[in-house]
Every structure is written in C-alpha cells, then in structure tokens.
Amino acid sequence: MAAITQFPAAFEICKPFMLTDQQMQEIVVRLNKEINMGLGRDTHARAVVKCYITHVHDLPSGNERGRFLALDLGGTNFRVLLVTLSSDSDVDILSKSYVMDKSLLVGPGRALFDFIAECLSNFCKEQNIDKEEMPLGFTFSFPVQQIGLDKGILTSWTKGFKCEGVIGKNVVELLQHAIERRGDVKIKIVAILNDTTGTLVSCAYKQRNCRIGLIVGTGSNACYMERTGNTEMYEGYQTSNKPNMIVNTEWGAFGDNGVLDFVRTSYDKRIDQESINPHKQTFEKCISGMYMGELVRLIIVDLMEQGAIFKNLKSQSIYEKWRFETSFISEIESDEPGHHRNCANILDQLGIRGATDNDMQCVQAICETISTRSAKLVSCGLVCLINKMNAKDCAIGIDGGVYRFHPKYHDLLVDNMTKLLRGSAKFELLLSEDGSGRGAALIASVAASRKK
Ligand code: BGC
C-alpha cells in the first residue's frame, strides 16, 4: 500500500489526522477524567460522558431458559428476533429485518413507535405467537438514562435520528402504548438495554472474562463492568450486595466540552456543522461509520479543487454530501497490494472514470488515514476502560460494521492497544455474533425471573 507521504498535497491535509503516541496517552487520561465525572453523584449533571447505570449486575449464568422476543433499534434497519434459550450452548435465533423509511427517523416519535409495533405484530403473526404472552427485550441504541431494567428516558438522539416528542420520555412506555393501541398481540416489554450492553452480556455468555462491550458501527460506544461502589448514580451503590454493574459510558459524546479540540481537524469541524446534531457526539464523529466516508469525501474534494487528484476528470456525485459510504473505505482497503479493482469500481459508481494508478493509491492512503485514526481513538477508549477496571486479562465483545468489515481494523486495535498498555494487561478482541438480539433475550430472561 502506498504511503500517504508519497502524495505531498494529500499528506499536508492528512497530517493532523495522524495521532502521535503522546496524543493518544493524553486522550486516555482525559477520557478517564470524563468517565469519573459521569459516575460521580456531584459531577454527573455537568458530565458529558454520562456513564449511565444499566441496572444489569450479573453476567449470564448459562441457566437462562425460555423464549423471548427482542427488538434491535439503532440504525437505519431494525430487527425483530425470536430467541429461544434452551441450554447453555444452544441459542436459536429467528430474525427479520425491516427497512425504515428515512422520513421515520426524523418524523414524529409516535409514527416511529407505531411502525415498530406494526412490524412486531406482523412478526408475531407470522411466527404464530400472537396469542402468547411474550416478554420482550428492547435494544435501543441511543443515550438513555435508565431508571430501572424496564424504564429508560431518552436524553438525546444520535446517528441521524431526530424524532419529535421522544426526548425526556420513557421509551419503554412509548412502545408499550403503541403495542396496546393495536391490541392484537400480547407483548410485554420487560427490559430496555443499549447495544453495547447486549454485546457484553452475550459475549460473556460464552467467554467468562468478557468485561467490555464495544460497538464500532454507524455509531460508537462502549460499556464495561464497574464496581457497584463506584456507580454513585445508583441508589443502592453503597449498600448493594451485588459487586458489579454494567455502565454504559456513551463515550460518543466525549469531547463535546472541547477536551478533544487538541486533536480535532478542520474536517471534523466541518462534519460537525453539516450534521443534524452539531456540537454533539464529538468522539463518535471522529470514529464511526456514519462519518468516516464523509471525511474521506471532503478530503478528496479539497484535493480535486487544488488540482492534486483526478486531474481533468469530472464527477457530480463526489460533490454530494454523504455520498462516499464508509463501506467504500473497507472495500478500497481490501484491494490486493498493487491492484485497485475495488477502488476503480467505487470511483466508477461515483462517476469518476479514467483515474490513474497514482490517484487510486492516493485515495487508498486517505482511507487508511481515516480508518487508522478511528482505530487509534477506539484503542484509547478501550485502554482507558481496561486501566479503570484494573483488569489483567479481559475479553472485549465487539460488534458493528466498521469492526466487522474493515480488513485491518482488528489488527489496528490490537497493535495500538498493545502499545498503549505496555504489557500491563492481556486482552482479547472477540467479534460478537448477534449480540444485540441474544443479549436482549438474556437480559429479558433475568428481568422476567426478577419479576416472578
Ligand atoms: C449511541 C449509543 C450506541 C452507539 C452504537 C451511539 O450513537 O448514542 O447509545 O450504543 O451509537 O450504536
């Protein structure tokens, strides 16, 4: 792969994205400080990294049994799953994805929940479970202040969602009411959880030392096992006999108070201004799939304007906002060394025909710059959590399209984390299979048994 240094104009633009070891260490220190603010009773209100308590104390025991519905909402698709837990190794999952019209993401909340209830009802009828009382675990992947296992208040929308009338409300109630308005299925929402929590819980089902759940997909976030005594926002934090609690960090908001400005580039600021949630989710905007492609696009456009790439070639599409998908980065970086088959295909889709090998090498090097920075930032986050838990040997369950499909993301994480940890802890990164669904069922099972 060609180094970015071979392309002076691109190198000039990309330099600020190249994090030094020192900057990375500083990010670890700053995140740790923000997390402590989120956890603390006196500091939580003004904290930006909220560290929401999840009310999930226990990792699965392997004895969970039963049939549960799960709902996974957090991207442009959402899924309904029927999960059967029948032995500690046997989990049967039947699922269906539903495409949501973009207008639903920014329309009234009631329309969103009515649509979800309709899909749930159709699913139950297809599976012949519409007459059965079904407990449901709701994976809702947005910042939620959890009041209990089955009560969560949405504090802000992220990732392109902006439905009116939902912030400040208990989303479990909004969905339960939508289900009841239809009155054609007997679903009871017993738990609400974040996708990171689902990922951690479902990984821990298989790997006992799993302590962190990470998502690097459309958005980014992580949760981890904190000592209950440190979760000051939990009423019983001093008296609980449960040693641990999963904390949903909502690290996507890290930097919303300016503490990451020392590493943000002018491109990050542009992305932020173009987004539907300016000044929010600063860390996420440097990391996640919703934004990586757009960063690459903005850089390419600037280079075109300088005449440093695609000389004399025209493309309308490249000037369209959000047109360069993050999946393109994974495809371009998957090209065999010395070949540019995927890159040429993608440029073709963007109407750029006749690009030189040099141009394509440059595009590849830009993609590499953006994905490497993303992985470095995530590495800082993970190392911060490992240090915080003082974990000596821990597994991390990971989900999300960026981690799953990018050819080098896993190795980038391993290399950067190893460097930052300097031998102080061992870790293992595990791809989670269907974490949100399986995790939702496991937590629903815990909730259902607590109710009994
Ligand atoms: C949300 C998190 C979620 C993450 C990954 C972020 O935008 O705020 O709650 O876990 O995306 O889906």
Backbone shape: globular
Structural class: alpha/beta
Mean pLDDT level: 95
Individual helix count: 15
Quaternary structure classification:
single chain
Highest CATH level, the class of the domain at 59-204 and 434-445: Alpha Beta
**Major sheet details:** 6 strands, mixed
Q: How many DSSP-defined strands?
A: 13
Low-confidence stretches: none
Structure ligands: beta-D-glucopyranose
| End-to-end gap | 59 Å
Question: Strand content of the residues, in percent?
Answer: 15-25%
State the helical fraction. Answer: 40-55%
CATH superfamily of the domain at 59-204 and 434-445: ATPase, nucleotide binding domain
Characterize the structure shown:
By secondary structure, the protein is of the alpha/beta class. It has a domain at 59-204 and 434-445: Nucleotidyltransferase, domain 5 (2-Layer Sandwich), CATH 3.30.420. It has 15 helices and 13 strands. It has helices at 8-14, 21-39, 102-106, 109-126, 171-182, 195-206, 266-274, 282-287, 289-305, 326-333, 341-349, 357-389, 401-405, 409-421, 435-451; strands at residues 52-53, 66-73, 77-85, 91-99, 133-140, 144-148, 151-154, 186-193, 210-216, 220-227, 244-248, 393-399, 426-431. The strands form three sheets. A six-stranded mixed sheet has the order 1-11-10-9-12-13, with helices on both faces. A five-stranded mixed sheet has the order 4-3-2-5-8. The longest helix has 33 residues, at 357-389. Bound molecules: beta-D-glucopyranose (BGC).
